[in-house]
Amino acid sequence: GQNIDQPTEMTATEGAIVQINCTYQTSGFNGLFWYQQHAGEAPTFLSYNVLDGLEEKGRFSSFLSRSKGYSYLLLKELQMKDSASYLCAVRDGDYKLSFGAGTTVTVRA
Amino acid sequence: DTEVTQTPKHLVMGMTNKKSLKCEQHMGHRAMYWYKQKAKKPPELMFVYSYEKLSINESVPSRFSPECPNSSLLNLHLHALQPEDSALYLCASSPETGTGWAPLHFGNGTRLTVT
């Protein structure tokens, strides 16, 4: 089975940095994904990690430590449009993608 | 704009109705997925089709019946649903199920209300 944990909510100020942590225990591991989902909309792909280390993509970076079952998503230079839910998802050995409950990020002016 | 198109965007149906949700993608993806998402909850996997064959059924009740007529289309037939089936139904696609790096591309979903 899958157990994917992330904080429920985070609040930060426009222009600041926020780090969303995700820990997982899964029966297999074939990659970890981060998705962004605005209310009432589809999840959109942000980043993918399969090897340990940091992947940087503009204002967003994602880190993975497979030995610790840990990842984080770093959002820099926060903008109001970054207010959304951020979903950590793990693809297990069966290629199923299982999602964490999501972290709602609120960006304040 | 999403490259995975779902219709209808909203659907209200009674418990005795039969309806279908439709999903279409033209990215050449060979894996297609149905997810169910309740408010403030993560998407939950329902079905996976790989090369037009059902490869995963997550113990979904038989009142949900998936169909993959061809590599671009995915349907979800609904019959005798319950009010607790009200949710956002998301379709997704990926190049193939065995490609670990490939992200899922989601459609905007169908908001289903069962009365």
Structure, described:
The complex is a heterodimer of chains A (109) and B (115). Chain A has strands at 2-5, 9-13, 18-26, 32-37, 44-49, 53-57, 60-65, 70-75, 84-91, 97-99, 103-108. Chain A has 109 residues and is mainly β. In chain A, a hairpin with a 4-residue loop joins strand 7 (60-65) and strand 8 (70-75). Chain A is globular and about 40 Å long. The termini of chain A are far apart. The model of chain A has no long low-confidence stretch (mean pLDDT 92). Chain B is 0% helix and 56% strand. Chain B is built from no helices and eleven strands. Chain B has strands at residues 4-7, 10-13, 18-25, 31-37, 44-50, 53-57, 64-70, 73-79, 87-94, 105-106, 110-114. In chain B, the strands form two sheets. In chain B, strands 2, 4, 5, 6, 9, 10 and 11 form a seven-stranded mixed beta sheet that branches. In chain B, strands 1-3-8-7 form a four-stranded antiparallel beta sheet, with no helix packed on it. In chain B, strand 4 and strand 5 form a beta hairpin. Chain B is globular and about 40 Å long. Classes of the chains: A mainly beta (109), B mainly beta (115). At the A-B interface, strand 5 and strand 10 of A face strand 5 and strand 10 of B.
| Percent range of helical residues of chain A | under 10%
Major protein interface = A-B, 22 and 25 residues
The percent range for strand residues of chain B is over 45%
- Provide the succession of SSEs of chain B: EEEEEEEEEEE
Estimate what percentage of residues of chain A fall within beta strands: over 45%
Quaternary form: heterodimer
Outline of chain A, from the CA principal axes? Answer: globular
First CA to last CA of chain B: what distance?
31 Å
Shape of chain B: globular
Unreliable stretches covering 5 or more consecutive residues of chain B: none
